[in-house]
């Protein structure tokens, strides 16, 4: 039989998940000097993962990554099979039979939990469900968010918390020309929220925002960024952290907090902005209270202990209660297991060695991983490129071991299985026609696109 990686016997790789790490893996494979066929599998009819359903609508520049993904998708070696769920419509074992290798790039689809009483009260949400809802993700289309309270609380001080706080801080006029989903804009238009508390368990030197994201709060038209200067006092270890040259980002963040704390929010009420976003530190929610829905959060003040860069927060025994009807837990994403693939429950990732999936420290043949399900939910979109390239390098170095001696039929095998199961899969050209409809619908409203938020409607459009 022809050599694996030749024109007669191309290396067939299935990529599970069509977010950034999936596309960067496809790019690295296509750029290699052997013959390759890539089949990318996606659960939704629409590709691009968090770039479509996670990146904030008022950050259009970040979405330009899609231009590159579109270019990759136009390569003759690339094939999208969307609207299919691996583990339900196609099993992992079937992928193993149809392809020489599988790269799992399915991201971190769930959330970390606070683990406190009342966490699941009505009015307590994960930031990720709110983000997915305003971005028009079909799974979250019909979620209800009650914005009738004047106080909103966000737990966590990373960039997802910043996105949620910014969307709650902006007026409809500031959002209506973005690609925010129409149903979300309608609800935000009725929002009564005036005070947004963004609460970190550690101090201002440990907040995980990036400077660009935090700077935006100083430039909002209708919302003031509020920081109490007494909260900016640092312990010795935090001073050492901020003096470290490589930690320049945290120093910039701290300087921004200082800038916000020096701005006096005074004068007659009529001259003040309509909303305030309060950044508060060294506090943890310990209980969410309310009869049938959230009414109050019990919060404990914290103290830091530990060496520089290893400081952790501990409760001080001092508590207070904050009245609110809505709280967002924004404390990080978490990967979920997939049937037939080893999973590290503690870390919420697929255990791996340089992208090769392992089980009990043994490499599992044919299985690779990249992105957040490989290394955990951290880093910006571009971080995934190097991560995916590293995985593809491991895969290509294993070429000899991937050669089972059988020719694999790749997508053809999957299509016949899907047809026999009556699964309506979608190819990239079909996605492009949904995409064109969204853009057309957006144009009428001065938006880059109006997302179609029901899978049924996307399918009807194609049929
Ligand atoms: P993140 O950056 O890891 O922030 C998580 C926050 O939750 C931290 O403040 C963390 O505090 C806090 N936290 C964790 N466990 C907690 C607990 N039990 N109680 C209270 N607080 C807790 O995660 P993320 O905001 O979800 O963002 C994920 C990644 O996506 C990040 O790399 C982020 O930069 C990226 N992202 C980028 C953009 C952008 O570029 N515009 C937008 C969105 C997201 P500790 O520090 O104490 O752990």
Report on the structure:
It is a single chain. Strand 16 and strand 17 form a beta hairpin. The chain has two domains: 11-109 and 335-426, Rossmann fold, CATH 3.40.50.720; 113-331, FAD/NAD(P)-binding domain. The model has no long low-confidence stretch (mean pLDDT 96). The relative contact order is 0.18. With 463 residues, the chain is an alpha/beta fold. Helix 1 (20-31) crosses helix 3 and helix 5 (127-134) crosses helix 6. The chain starts with 10 loop residues before the first strand and ends with a helix. The strands form four sheets. A seven-stranded mixed β-sheet has the order 3-2-1-4-18-17-16, with helices on both faces. Strands 6-14-7-8-10-9 form a six-stranded parallel β-sheet. A three-stranded antiparallel β-sheet has the order 11-12-13, with no helix packed on it. 32% of the residues lie in helices and 21% in strands. The structure holds NADP nicotinamide-adenine-dinucleotide phosphate. NADP nicotinamide-adenine-dinucleotide phosphate is lined by residues 59, 112, 114, 155-161, 163, 200-202, 206, 208, 213, 284, 330-333, 377-380.
The geometry reads as globular
State mean pLDDT (0 to 100 scale): 96
Question: What is the gyration radius calculated from CA atoms?
Answer: 24 Å
Give the CA-CA distance, first to last residue. Answer: 41 Å
Structural class from helices and strands? alpha/beta
Classified by CATH, the class of the largest domain is: Alpha Beta
Biggest beta-sheet profile:
7 strands, mixed
CATH third-tier fold name of the largest domain: FAD/NAD(P)-binding domain
What is the name of the CATH superfamily of the largest domain?
Answer: FAD/NAD(P)-binding domain
For the biggest β-sheet, the strand order reads 3-2-1-4-18-17-16
Strand content: 15-25%
What hetero molecules are bound to the protein chains? Answer: NADP nicotinamide-adenine-dinucleotide phosphate
Architecture per CATH nomenclature, i.e. the level-2 architecture of the largest domain: 3-Layer(bba) Sandwich
**Low-pLDDT ranges:** none
Quaternary organisation of the protein chains: single chain
Number of helices: 17
Number of strands: 18
Question: What's the number of structural domains?
Answer: 2
Query: Which percent range fits the helix content?
Result: 25-40%
